[in-house]
Design a protein that fits this description.
Layout: H1 3-82, H2 89-172, H3 178-187, E1 193-197, E2 200-201, H4 210-218, E3 223-224, E4 231-234, H5 236-240
Helix pairs in contact: 1-2
Bound molecules: zinc ion.
The site of zinc ion has 8 residues, from loops.
């Protein structure tokens, strides 16, 4: 196995492991993403329910005000009849006060009813629109959630394939290098073998000597960066650019 073949197998393994990691990351994030959509749905439903509750509350208040008004009107009629059969001035004055109080109450009830009727009417119209709007939003969120679940399943399949590919790539690595590779890969968070860009290591930016560059170009041996200890290679595509 030549040095360049060894390097190539390391690069392949690193790429395969990077892919495995990125798929795993996606899979890990998926439940939270799905949950966020579900939370969003629940929040929209709750907001609509709150508006419905306010509407029901106003309807109830309107009903109560209407009953109060009816009762006050009945009372005032009775008292207006009763006042004719009153004997003393004191009772008469008291009854007049009661009638005046009832008139005030009727006025208040009528005002309340007018205000509430307007509110209830507006809310009814508004709620119809909101219900349609939220229904549409929930439909979209359902589709989003289903899409996320589908993607998750797809990623699980991709992970199995990527893990198999990574195992195959590992089997192709020369056994004298695998230990070094694993140590570097773990220590440098996924970077064990890195290309040289220009005249420096693309991982730590430490310059590479001309001699090292020449050795790399010749595919002479496995060479480690003096800065980060990563295994260096010449990226042929970068070189062409
Ligand atoms: Zn370096």
């Amino acid at each position: 196995m030549t040095a360049s073949n060894k390097l190539e197998s390391l690069v392949t393994l690193q790429k395969a492991l990077t892919l495995v990691k990125s798929i795993r990351d996606e899979i890990e994030k998926a439940p939270a993403r799905i949950q966020a959509v579900e939370d969003d749905k629940a929040a929209r439903k709750a907001a609509l329910e709150k508006e419905r509750e306010t509407h029901r509350d106003h309807q109830k208040k309107l009903k109560t005000a209407e009953l109060d008004l009816g009762k006050a009107e009945e009372d005032i009629q009775k008292k207006q009849v009763q006042i004719h059969s009153i004997k003393t001035n004191k009772e008469y004055t008291a009854m007049e006060h009661e009638i005046a109080a009832l008139k005030t109450k009727i006025k208040t009830c009528e005002d309340t009813i007018l205000t509430l009727m307007e509110e209830v009417e507006q809310e009814t119209r508004h709620l119809k629109l909101r219900e349609q709007e939220i229904l549409g939003e929930i439909k979209e969120l359902d589709a989003k959630s289903a899409e996320l679940s589908r993607t998750l399943e797809q990623k699980k399949t991709e992970l199995v394939q990527a893990e198999t590919a990574a195992q195959e790539a590992r089997n192709n690595v020369h056994n004298t290098l695998i230990g070094t590779f694993d140590k570097l890969y773990a220590r440098n968070r996924g970077k064990a073998v890195v290309p040289v860009f220009g005249n420096s290591c693309s991982h730590c930016n430490v310059s590479v000597t001309l001699q090292t560059l020449a050795q790399l170009q010749d595919g002479w041996d496995i060479i480690r960066c003096e800065g980060c200890s990563c295994i260096l290679y010449m990226d042929k595509t970068e070189e062409a650019v």
